[in-house]
Amino acid sequence: MIRIHKEGNFWVTFVCVSYIIIIGVLSYFKFFLIWPIAILLGIFVYLIINFFRNPDRKISKFDDSLIYCPADGKVVVIEKTIETEYFKDERIQVSVFMNPLNVHVNRYPWSGTVSFSKYHAGKFLVAWHPKSSTENERTTVVIKRNDGTEILMRQIAGALAKRIICYSKEGDKATQGDDMGFIKFGSRVDLYLPLNAKINVTIDQIVKGNIDVIATV
Asked: Is 132 annotated in the active site?
């Protein structure tokens, strides 16, 4: 049984009902191309359901020192860089690119308190573009661990993604592994970590949210 994220309830219901109605009408009028149309529309319905799936993944080991992957996809950036919005100093950036076939649920990488949350309107450059982190539509969320250590997580819209969903508000309790948002139709997630973080992933590695550990702090 496929588990659907709440952000997909409308879309999945709409496409399934529409599919039944269209095929029913074509069948009633005995349209000669009904089977090719049924197959093509069936593929589209499958892609929508696949996109909004929300696998029930439990954190195998809750540990404040571990930063779990916040999204499914491929690691496309691991580098030291200056984070200019919140920290305004040097951090280790790790970026995960999500293609349209990946699970698009975003999850809290560790537990703590949301100390900063801000939405930015912007462009829709392709998610792997170097300027997408600062020019695309995005949401920035900072999570403070109990000892005061903070990490920054940024949801970034891509060329196809036209809506970012973020549930995080300043002062909220963040629980490692819980849903913190959703990005619709292709996107990217950036993490900005302390310089003493031990990175556990490599460039081009395929990762899964709540399963792979990005880093240890």
From this structure: no
